[in-house]
Design brief:
alpha+beta; seven-stranded antiparallel beta sheet; Protein Transport Mog1p, Chain A; 6 helices
Amino acid sequence: MKTGAITAAIVIAIVIVAGVGYYLLTRREVGPITKSPEEMALKSTDAPSGWLKGESTTWLSLDVVAQHFGTSVSNMQSWGYDRGVQQVFIGDNKSNLWSGVLRFSNVDGASKAFSQLRTVYNPERENTIPQKIGDECAGYTETVEYSTHVIIFRKANVVAIVSTFGPTWMFSFDDTIAYAKIVEGRIQ
């Protein structure tokens, strides 16, 4: 009886050690993203074919980002805000497609910034996103005469915002998710 119990304990220990070893060998820790925010943002080629009428790229200063996040410059500095860019694409029917990509020096700071940005967009209006985007994500829709769909997400030390605006038939929430997935794919 003791031999059977000892054998079972050894087998369990081997399985546990093998599982931990496999995990340690196969896990992919994402280190700090160093790619330029401009490289990660949406591009004109991502816009609907034949839709684009104009575009602009703006590097985001610390004070502009702090204002958009509803916080102070000192908070943004303490969170390690490094650099950010916004890409705006203007199309037919008074519609636009917008992306903002902000890089932080560390994951913890980016997570704090994401949490702060989430409060700006009001968690009571938050939509369910049917698929995971990044490490943390949230989505919002507001429809009056036009529809605005917003996806914010954090992946490692990068916070991204993707927004669509236009007549209700122009962009859906699912379209906005698809654009967010394009940006997510560029964050590496």
